Amino acid sequence: MSDDYRVVAEVTSVSTENDLFGAVDALLEQVAQDELPPPAERKRLREAAGLSQAQVAQALDARREAVGNWESGRTEPRPPKRAAYARLLEGLAARFPSPAADEPAAAPAPPEPLPAPSVVPASRPAVASDTTGPAAAPRRAPAKKNLAKTAAKSAAKKAGAAAVDPRFENGPLAVIDCDQDGHVSAYCVGGLVLDVPAKSIPALVEWTLKEARLGQPRLHRNGKDADPVLVLMPSALERYGLPAALSEEERRAGRLPAGHAVLKQLERAEWQLTQRGFGPWARIFRPAEGAKRNCVQLCVPAWNALDVREWDDREAPLLPTMSAADLARFLGTYATRVMTPRGTTAVTGLELMVALHPPTRAVKDERTGEWHSAPAPGALTAVYEPVECEVPDGHPVLKGKFPRHHQRTPAEMLMEESYDWCRPLTDAECMQPYVVGIDVNMAFAAAANRLTVGLGGPTHVRRPVFDPKLPGSWLVDLSHIALDERLPSPFTARGERPEGPAWYATPTVAYAVELGFEVQPVEAYVRHEHGGYLDAWYQRLRDAYMETMADLGVVSGMEEHAFLEAMAASKSVDPEMALVLKAIKATAKGGIGKLRERPRGTPMFEPWPALERKEWRPDIRAAVLATTRVNMHRKMMKVAAAADLYPVAIGTDCVVYPSPGPSPLDFLPRTPDGKPVPGGFRLGVSPGMVKHEGTQTTLWAEEQYEKHGLVNIARIIKDGGRTADDGE
Fold it and tell me: Which of 30, 99, 191, 414 could form a cystine bridge with 143, CB 3.0-4.6 A?
C-alpha cells in the first residue's frame, strides 16, 4: 500500500468518525438539555411578550414560517436553533408564568372515549399539477390588538377545552392576496398566513380543499359543515385572470359571461358552478363523495359582494382601505360568532336558521339496519300550499283573482309591518325643549325569542274560536277597540284605528284579548304543528351581539349613566368591530325579511326562485313583526300610565318622546325608589332594552313639520335629517 493511499484512508476515517461523534453529541444535547414546552405554550409566551413571529425568527436566524410550524406542532426546531429557542422560552416563562401555574392541580378526570373522527386524509394529498411548490406553511400577519384578541377569545369560549377540529384548524375563511413579486398568501383568522402555491382558480380550489384546512364545523348534529370561503383581494383577481370590476352588462347579469377564460379553466378541470354562475359570491363544486362535500365559495369585494349597506360604514367606508389581514379578522370574527357568510347578511341570516334547524336527519331502519333521511322534528321540512291572504302582490296564487292594478285591502291581505307613525306635538309638548329618540336593541331578534310559529301546513277554519297559542292568520274586526289618541293603534303599522275586518297574525289578536277586548274571528288559517323554531337563531345572534358589544366596551349590568357614556364612545373604540356589530344586526333584520322574499325581475304572477324554499314563510315574518309592534305598544302603555307621557313618532324600532332634557334619563319614568318602571322602556345593552338614538330640539321638530308636513321625525332624529334610518 502506498504512502499516499494510507494518508487518504486515515483522513477519511477521521472525517467519518468526527461526523458520527458530532451527530451523537447533537442528539445527546437535544435529549439532555433543550426541553421545550408544548406548542400552545410556546405561542402563549410569545404573545404575552408582545413579540411577533417575525421578531422571533430574526433573533434565531430562522424563517417566519418555521416559527409558525414550531408553535403549531407541525415541526420541531433542530440544533443549534433548538437550544437558543429553548433559552428564549425559558426566559419568557420566568417573566410571564402561566395563569394556571399558581392554582392547585385539579384531580385528573377519568378518561373518556374519544369521538370517532370525521373523514380526514391520513396524509395530505398533492395538489393539482400547476400548484407545484412547498406545502402551505403558516406565518402570522401583523395583528391589530383588539380584533386579534377578541377573535381568539371568541374561539376559545366556543371551543372550551375541546380540541380544534383538525379538518378546519385554520379557521372558516381566508383572504387571498398577492404581493408585488407575485407571491400569493392566504390570510386566516387569528393572524395566521398560509403560502398559496396555486397558479389558477381551479388549482386554488384544489388547494383549499386538500391543503388549506379551512371550513367550519356544523352548528347542529343533523346539519352540514360550512364550506370554506376565499375572499379575493384586487391583486388576487389580477393574479388569477379575473377582472378588477364587472362591466355594466356583467353587473346586471350578476356574473361573468359564459366564454370567460376562467370559466373554461374550471370546466376543463371538471369543476361546476351553481345557476348563479361566477359572480360576487360564487360556489365552485364537484359532486359530494359520501358525506364529504367538495365545495368552495369565493367572495369578491371588488364586485360589491360586501354591500356598504350591510357590511360597511356608509358615511366613512372602511372596507376599501382594509388590508388582507384586517379583512380576514373582520369577516373571521363575524364567521366565528354568527356563521360563515353565505352571501348577503340577509342570506346568511336565513341560512343560519337552516343550519340550527336542519330539515332532515338520519334515521336507522330497525328492520333492515340501513340509514335513510327523514324529516327532523322542530324544523321547516316541506313547501306547503300558499295562503292567499299571506302572500305579497304578484304571487302566482293571485293570478286572475283581482282586477288589474287592484290594491288589496287589509281584509284581503295580511299587513303586519313595523311602526311608521307620527303625530303633531300638543301645546304642552311644544313647551319641552327637546325631543329624544330611544331605539330598541335587536328588536326583530328579540321579538323572535320564545315566539311560537307554525311548522306545518295551514288549516282553513270558518268561525273559529281564537286560541292565542295557535299560530296563524285570523280575519277579525278590531275596529271597535278605541285607545288614547296620543298613542298609535297597536293593530296597524301606520297607527291608525282599523276601519273594519282585517287579517292579523296571532300576536296582534292575542294583544287585543290581553287589553280586555272581545274578538270574534270570521275565518282563519292556523298551523296545528308549531314550535319555537327561531329560539336557537335568536340565541346565536344574541350571543354574537352581546360579545361584540363587550368588545366595544358595553356590557350588561352597567349603571345607566355609564351605559349611555359607553354607548356614545363605542364606535370609536374599534371601528372594525363596529362593522361586525352592524353586520350582526343586519343579519337579524335581513333574515326575517328573507322569510317573505319578493320577486326581483320576475314578471307578475310568475313563480320566483324563493318560492321553492321551505323557509319561504311569510306567516312567520308576519308573526315576528306583529310581536315587535305589540311589544313596543305594551311598553308605551306602561310609560303613559306611569308618567302621562306619550310618544310623538315611531319609526320601526325608534320611539321619540318630548323631554325636559337631552338624555333619555330626563324623561323615562321611575318608581318611587328610583328604579325604571316595570314593563316600560329600560336602558341597557340586552336585546329588547333600549339605547339613546338621538336628540334634537323641539324647535327643530317644528321646522321639519313646516318644511315637509307631518314627517316622521323618528327616522331622522339621529343625525338631524342627513340620512333616513329604517331601523336595525
Answer: 191
